[in-house]
């Protein structure tokens, strides 16, 4: 369908910017995303563009959209909400001999089974979406997993235009998991793209292949080391990738708050301006320092970064593409004790 498009784009190529550009004051627009951080970021950017938040534009968190828009207005039944806690959901599964119920105690939806329940229901939520909106955008589509991926691709059955945007290699989050449902698809780019195509989306993998954020040398490093095809739109090649192993230089970087330090996890345990790899998604800095944990340092040292586990590889890719300037690489073990909380 010409009005059902799935756009796979590289980091920093302007995915969200494209959505913002397509908005107007005349079309009733629905935007769906997974993380709260991205939902808030979208709202801020929309308000920045128009000078206020237009009443015809609605930005929904995924679970919010399923529950408050697709279900509760269309069903004569009272629900008490959604259970997000995975430990509680595991307890429920064990009590039911691992046959997880779609609705718990006739009151609560579970994130693991909500989308499957909705897909199998007779609720006419697609008609409701068609009635209230003129277009639908889904941002960070790579975050949708398991039955939620089936639900997102089911939007191809809408009559109105639908645009999915995302980056397969930025899978640092998963909406939910249920056994091996769609697990293989999310670990193989071609299978993932085929899933979108088979659902009825025109898959575009070329329009946004150039990063407007990262310099050529950084893109070349990512392409050669991680095997991810990312190219730079910048002409100047004055930014570098540098592995730093001298104590005085590492100390200087750690003290420089202009250089954001990105850790695999537990960034709060270090006395510096920092965040975690996965949490940095959607953010842009100048110079950055990616701190390599033992696993990624070993892979870097043996030129095997491309063999990292998919989730680790995705988080490293996200971290390395956060900067507009230089990319410094430092081994975690070499960080001086004075910077550890």
UniProtKB/TrEMBL annotation:
<protein>
    <recommendedName>
        <fullName>DNA helicase</fullName>
    </recommendedName>
</protein>
<dbReference type="InterPro" id="IPR027417">
    <property type="entry name" value="P-loop_NTPase"/>
</dbReference>
């Amino acid at each position: 369908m010409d009005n059902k498009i799935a756009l796979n784009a590289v980091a920093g190529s302007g995915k969200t910017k494209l959505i913002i550009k397509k908005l107007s004051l005349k079309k009733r627009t629905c935007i769906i995303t997974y993380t709260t951080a991205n939902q808030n970021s979208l709202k801020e950017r929309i308000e920045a563009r128009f000078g206020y938040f237009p009443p015809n534009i609605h930005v929904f968190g995924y679970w919010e959209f399923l529950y408050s828009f697709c279900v509760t207005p269309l069903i004569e039944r009272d629900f008490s909400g959604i259970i997000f806690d995975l430990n509680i959901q595991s307890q429920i599964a064990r009590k039911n001999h691992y046959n997880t119920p779609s609705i718990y105690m006739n009151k609560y939806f579970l994130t693991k089974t909500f989308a499957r329940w909705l897909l199998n229901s007779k609720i006419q939520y697609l008609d409701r979406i068609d009635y209230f909106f003129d277009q639908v955008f889904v941002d960070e589509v790579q975050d949708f997993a398991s039955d939620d991926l089936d639900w997102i691709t089911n939007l191809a059955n809408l009559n109105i235009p639908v645009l999915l945007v995302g980056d397969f290699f930025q899978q640092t989050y998963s909406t939910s998991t249920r056994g091996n449902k769609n697990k293989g698809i999310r670990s193989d780019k071609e299978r993932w793209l085929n899933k979108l195509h088979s659902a009825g989306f025109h898959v575009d993998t070329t329009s946004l292949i150039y990063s407007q954020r990262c310099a050529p040398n950084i893109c070349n490093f990512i392409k050669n080391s991680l095997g991810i095809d990312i190219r730079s739109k910048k002409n100047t090649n004055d930014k570098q990738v540098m592995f730093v192993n001298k104590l005085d230089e590492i100390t200087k970087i750690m003290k420089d708050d202009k250089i954001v330090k990105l850790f695999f996890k537990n960034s709060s345990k270090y006395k510096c301006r920092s965040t975690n790899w996965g949490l940095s998604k959607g953010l842009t800095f100048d110079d950055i320092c990616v701190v390599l944990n033992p696993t990624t340092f070993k892979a870097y040292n043996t030129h095997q970064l491309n063999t990292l586990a998919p989730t680790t590889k995705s988080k490293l890719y996200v971290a390395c593409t956060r900067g507009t300037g230089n990319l410094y690489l430092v081994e975690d073990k070499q960080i001086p004790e004075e910077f550890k909380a």
